Structure formats: structure tokens, C-alpha cells
């Protein structure tokens, strides 16, 4: 069988590759801290590994409370207002024409009064709870230091804080603000190297063949200094994966690392830096990290090799795509250097020498190989899987089998359960999964695809009925089946119908759904459509009172209507006095 190294395909032409893009440097003196009356601590930094994305900004603590003044970091104008139940929740985007940047302020509780009025008017006019408004240049100018909003906890926020970014508008690149000194942070703590693993690699028929990942024992010898407890017996070619995290003074949070560099015999061969990235490239974190380990890790798990489908722009240099060779029969010294965004450095030293064989591969039919640059379609029993070119980060083998539910579920299971590939295989762009099923016509709107969570719980995966099958687009592999959801969402008001609400600013409801999740929601007071603020993480909907639309000191009728993703609708009717 002809063998060649897939990870090193480019090395014959260009052994050393330098990063193609240089991130823009900002002048810290031209920007101020974006939130007032806080201790100046952070809960998350730039570039942290998150599920399927890099963290694109800095999370600034607001000392456990909402309502801190958020100020314009520099002169400019408000260009965009977003109100959403997900993402950054209520967010403002401010353009700074003097240097072509845009600052982003997320998870806000409310906007400046004129911006708040604009957002409210747009929601009423369009009868939409979620809005995304782009404004003409200069209509809403701001001065540096001017209060433009109050901090909050909206959107995908797990506690009060301000998410803050600055983007280079030339290419929509978001920048590392701690590294550039825009957001000062007290940090004298070197990164923590928690572990290192070695994996030998070869390929067969153009498909990578990986060995079992071997964990290497390490010990800490001094502050910021680590070394391996034994020499690594290495295959002719392989690479390392490093588990690292960072801490900062005065907080207990874990942070992402800024730079990690690999040296072989004193020569740098691979360097990853979190200087900035285009937002459309954020999902490549699944290739920079070692995805199977990163899924459940409490640290960063960085792969010291460039996968076939990972752009080299994430690396300031690469040689042999990061792989370590011992085919010359010699012993080599490896140093891993890790730096945080405040300049603290830790190092790990180890030696490798020849001592193990390349991984062996079983013969795989050509029709089972998913070549990452080509479209792939495979039918197995009643399922059809379509994987578009570029959806995977490396060429791999297709696997599917009929499986079993490992635990009971209240959901009705309409089809066999199919395990498609593995949830340890990351997906960059959505794949299409179609399962043939018999579903009566009157129930098809309630049918959906379910995928099992790592704990074996069914999770809604979407889908629509087409040509005798349920078809969905999925951003992950796993275990799928078709089910029915005929249960209405549950609405529980946090007040008694008819209650005196004169001391409250809003009517609040606890809203939940047992499977497919909330898709649509609306409210009315005295028959007038009224905006609803939906917080999925806390499971609450809030209907704020607006005296300009109905009289004070009187009784009002309120209706909340909620529909889930499988077409089940619940409606609550009540009244309040205000």
C-alpha cells in the first residue's frame, strides 16, 4: 500500500510558511475603558476556546450587578442596534471613523434614551421582538466617555457583565484588546501547562491514520517551568497536543492562552497566536484545538499540528505543518513555550527518540472515504447523509450503524436509531441527514429529528418533511432518530391574574418547553401588540409596561402566546391593575 504523510503535503514545496496576515495595532491612548464604576476585572479574554467558536472579545465583570454606565470608548457614531434573545442580547455597535474601527458592547440592559426609543419604535412598527437596525452614518453621534447604555445580562450571558470588542472594519477582524493594551489587566501569573499528549500519524490512500494519543508524564520544576518525566518514544512522524490554561490576579476564572510555540532542537517550527480573527473564521477553533479532548475540557487543548482543512493564517509560522520527525534516527529536544496576553511565559521541555511504529490502517473501500475537498453522499438502510466539500477538517472514513437508545425517553421514537460518524468528529459546515419514515399527514408538522446529547438525552435537531423523509441540516454528527413533539410549551405567570402591578415595571412569565424549544412568542395588552423580552437561559419572558399606550390606574387584559419549533402553541390570558 502506498503511504505518504497527509499532514505534510505542503512541505515539499514550502517547508516553512509564515502567516499571510498581520493584525492591526491600535493606539491604547485613543481608547478609554468602556464601563464605569467597576473594579476593572475580567471573566473571559480574547480567543478563548468556546463550543464551535473562539471568544471574540473581552468579558468585563460588572461586580455582580446590572446597570453600570457603559461609555463610548472613542468618538464616533452608533451604526447598529440589536435586540435578540440569543447572542449578545441587547447590543450596540459604534463606528470610529478616525481609525476605521468598530466597538461592540454586548449583553446590555438598556440603551441611551434616544436609542432606546428608536429600538422600541422599530419593534412596535414591525411587530417583531428581535430587531437588527443599521443607521445612517452620523445620525447618532457619540463622544468618547459619553454614556450610551447600561450594562446587563441579556442574550447568552451567564451572569452580569459587559462583552466588549473592537473590530478592524477593513476585513471585519476582531482584535485582542488585552494584548494591545486597550483593556488593562493585572496579571503576574504564568500560564499553567496541565498536560501534553503525543500522537503518531501516517496516511493510507490519502486518509490520515492516527494512533492512540499517549499521555506524557510532566512535572513542575520552578515557577513557569515544566519538564517531561521520561523520554518520548516516537514514531517516524507525529505531533503533540498541549493542555494549557491561564489565570489572572484577583479572579478565579480560567482564561485562554495568547501564544504557543514549538521548538525542535532550538528552532521554532510551529507558532499559534490569538492576535485576531475574522468572525466568519471563528469555527476553525475546532481545528486549532484537539476537538475530541476540547469537548469536555476545562482548559485549552491545542493541537501542535496544522490539519489539512485548517487555514495557516492562524499560525505565525509552520514547518512540516508542525509534525515532529524521528525518521533520521536521532534524538531531538522539544520545547513548548506558552505565553498569556499579558506577557507571562511558561515552558515545557522534553526529548523524543525513535521507538514506536507508525499507526497501521485497515483497508477501507474508496467509496467509504470522505475526501474533504469533495462532495460526499452515502445511503445506509433508511438514512442518507450528504457531506459538502470542505465540511470536515480532514479526510476521513464514513461510518454509520443502527444503534440503541441507552436510556428511556418520553418521546415517541418513529424510526430506527442511527449512529452517524461520531460526535468526536467536528463539522465546519452543516451536513444534511435524511431519514425515511411513515408519519401521518396530520402529524408531520409535529415531527422532528432528535440527536442524543453526550449524556444520552434527546436534543432537538430540527428538520422538515420532504418526499417521505425527515431531513435536517446538522452542525454535528451523532446518534439520530425521528420523533414527534405534540406537547405545548408551559407558561407560568410570576403574578396572580388580577394583581395590583403599580409597583412593577413589567409582567414576568416563566416559560419552558420539554423538547423542541421556543420558536415564536408575542404578547398583547388591551389588544395592542406589545414587545416581549425573552431570556432562554433563565426561561423568562418579560412584558414591560408602557403608559403612553394605555391608561394608568386601570385594569388591563394581557395575553401571552408561545409556539415551539414543532408547531405546538400555548396561550395565557389574564389581567392586572396598573
Keywords:
578 residues; mainly beta; 12-stranded antiparallel beta sheet; 9-stranded mixed beta sheet; 51 strands; globular
Quick description:
This protein is mostly beta strands and 578 residues long. The chain is built from three helices and 51 strands.
Would you tell me the structural class of the helices and strands? mainly beta
How many distinct helices?
3
- Shape verdict: globular
Distance between the termini: 81 Å
Biggest sheet record: 12 strands, antiparallel
Measured on Cα atoms, how large is the radius of gyration? 27 Å
* Proportion of beta-strand residues: 35-45%
Mean pLDDT: 93
Can you walk me through this structure?
The protein has 578 residues and is mainly beta. Helices cover 4% and strands 45% of the residues. The protein has three helices and 51 strands. Strands 2, 5, 6, 7, 8, 9, 10, 11, 12, 13, 14 and 24 form a twelve-stranded antiparallel sheet that branches. The radius of gyration is 27 Å and the shape is globular. The protein starts with 15 loop residues before the first strand and ends with a strand. Mean pLDDT is 93; it is low at 1-14.
Topology:
Elements: E1 16-18, E2 42-44, E3 49-50, E4 53-54, E5 58-61, E6 69-71, E7 76-83, E8 90-96, E9 101-111, H1 113-126, E10 131-134, E11 141-142, E12 147-151, E13 161-168, E14 173-175, E15 192-204, E16 207-210, E17 214-216, E18 218-222, E19 225-228, E20 232-234, E21 237-245, E22 259-264, E23 267-273, E24 276-278, H2 285-288, H3 291-294, E25 300-303, E26 315-319, E27 324-325, E28 332-339, E29 345-354, E30 369-370, E31 376-380, E32 383-387, E33 396-397, E34 400-403, E35 412-413, E36 417-420, E37 431-436, E38 447-452, E39 458-462, E40 464-466, E41 469-474, E42 478-484, E43 490-493, E44 499-500, E45 506-512, E46 518-525, E47 528-530, E48 533-535, E49 540-544, E50 555-564, E51 569-577
Parallel strand pairs: 19-29, 20-29, 44-51
Antiparallel strand pairs: 1-26, 2-5, 3-4, 5-13, 6-12, 7-8, 7-10, 7-11, 8-9, 9-12, 9-13, 13-14, 14-24, 15-16, 15-17, 15-21, 18-19, 21-25, 21-27, 22-23, 22-28, 23-26, 28-29, 30-33, 31-32, 32-37, 34-36, 35-42, 36-42, 37-41, 38-39, 38-42, 40-41, 43-45, 45-49, 46-47, 46-50, 48-49, 50-51
Amino acid at each position: 500500500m502506498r503511504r505518504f504523510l497527509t499532514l505534510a503535503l505542503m512541505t515539499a514545496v514550502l517547508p516553512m510558511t509564515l502567516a499571510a496576515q498581520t493584525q492591526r495595532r491600535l493606539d491604547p491612548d485613543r481608547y478609554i475603558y468602556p464601563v464605569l464604576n467597576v473594579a476593572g476585572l475580567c471573566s473571559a479574554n480574547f480567543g478563548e476556546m468556546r463550543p464551535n467558536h473562539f471568544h471574540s472579545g473581552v468579558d468585563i465583570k460588572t461586580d455582580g450587578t446590572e446597570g453600570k454606565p457603559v461609555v463610548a470608548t472613542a468618538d464616533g457614531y452608533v451604526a447598529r442596534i440589536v435586540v435578540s434573545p440569543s447572542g449578545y442580547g441587547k447590543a450596540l455597535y459604534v463606528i470610529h471613523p478616525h481609525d476605521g474601527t468598530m466597538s461592540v458592547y454586548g449583553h446590555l440592559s438598556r440603551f441611551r434614551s434616544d436609542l432606546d426609543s428608536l429600538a422600541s419604535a422599530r419593534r412596535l412598527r414591525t411587530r417583531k421582538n428581535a430587531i437588527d437596525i443599521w443607521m445612517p452614518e452620523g445620525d447618532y453621534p457619540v463622544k468618547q466617555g459619553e454614556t450610551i447604555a447600561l450594562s446587563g445580562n441579556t442574550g447568552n450571558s451567564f451572569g452580569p457583565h459587559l462583552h466588549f470588542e473592537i473590530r478592524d472594519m477593513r476585513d471585519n477582524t476582531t482584535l485582542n484588546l488585552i494584548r494591545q493594551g486597550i483593556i488593562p489587566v493585572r496579571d503576574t501569573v504564568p500560564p499553567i501547562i496541565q498536560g501534553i499528549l503525543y500522537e503518531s500519524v501516517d496516511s493510507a490512500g490519502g486518509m490520515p491514520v492516527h494512533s492512540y494519543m499517549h499521555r506524557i508524564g510532566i512535572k513542575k520544576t520552578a515557577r513557569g517551568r515544566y519538564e517531561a518525566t521520561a523520554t518520548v518514544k516516537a514514531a517516524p512522524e507525529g505531533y503533540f497536543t498541549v493542555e494549557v490554561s491561564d489565570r489572572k490576579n484577583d479572579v478565579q476564572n480560567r482564561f485562554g492562552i495568547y501564544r504557543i510555540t514549538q521548538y525542535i532542537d532550538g528552532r521554532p517550527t510551529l507558532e499559534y497566536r490569538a492576535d485576531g480573527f475574522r468572525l466568519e473564521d471563528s469555527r476553525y477553533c475546532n481545528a486549532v484545538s484537539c476537538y475530541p479532548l476540547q469537548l469536555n475540557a476545562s482548559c485549552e487543548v491545542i493541537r501542535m499540528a496544522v490539519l489539512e482543512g485548517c487555514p495557516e493564517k492562524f499560525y505565525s509560522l509552520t514547518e512540516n505543518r508542525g509534525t515532529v520527525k524521528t525518521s533520521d534516527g536521532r534524538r531531538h529536544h522539544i520545547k513548548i513555550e506558552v505565553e498569556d496576553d499579558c506577557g507571562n511565559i511558561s515552558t515545557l521541555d522534553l526529548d523524543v527518540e525513535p521507538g514506536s511504529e507508525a499507526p497501521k490502517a485497515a483497508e477501507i473501500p474508496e467509496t467509504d472515504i470522505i475526501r474533504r475537498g469533495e462532495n460526499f453522499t452515502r445511503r445506509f438502510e433508511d438514512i442518507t447523509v450528504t457531506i459538502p466539500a470542505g465540511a470536515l477538517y480532514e479526510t476521513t472514513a464514513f461510518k454509520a450503524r443502527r444503534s440503541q437508545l441507552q436510556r428511556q425517553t418520553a418521546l415517541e421514537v418513529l424510526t430506527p436509531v442511527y449512529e452517524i460518524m461520531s460526535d468526536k468528529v467536528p463539522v465546519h459546515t452543516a451536513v444534511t441527514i435524511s431519514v425515511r419514515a411513515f408519519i401521518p399527514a396530520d402529524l408531520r408538522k409535529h415531527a422532528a429529528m432528535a440527536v442524543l446529547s453526550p449524556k444520552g438525552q434527546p436534543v432537538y435537531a430540527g428538520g422538515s418533511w420532504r418526499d417521505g423523509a425527515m431531513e435536517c441540516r446538522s452542525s454535528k454528527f451523532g446518534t439520530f432518530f425521528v420523533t414527534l413533539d405534540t406537547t405545548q410549551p408551559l407558561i407560568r405567570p410570576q403574578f396572580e391574574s388580577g394583581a395590583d402591578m403599580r409597583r412593577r415595571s413589567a409582567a414576568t412569565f416563566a416559560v419552558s418547553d420539554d423538547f423542541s424549544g421556543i420558536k415564536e412568542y408575542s404578547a398583547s395588552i388591551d389588544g395592542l401588540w406589545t414587545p416581549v423580552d425573552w431570556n432562554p437561559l433563565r426561561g423568562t419572558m418579560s412584558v414591560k409596561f408602557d403608559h403612553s399606550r394605555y391608561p394608568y390606574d386601570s385594569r388591563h387584559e394581557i395575553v401571552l402566546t408561545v409556539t415551539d419549533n414543532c408547531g405546538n402553541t400555548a396561550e395565557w390570558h389574564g389581567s392586572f391593575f396598573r
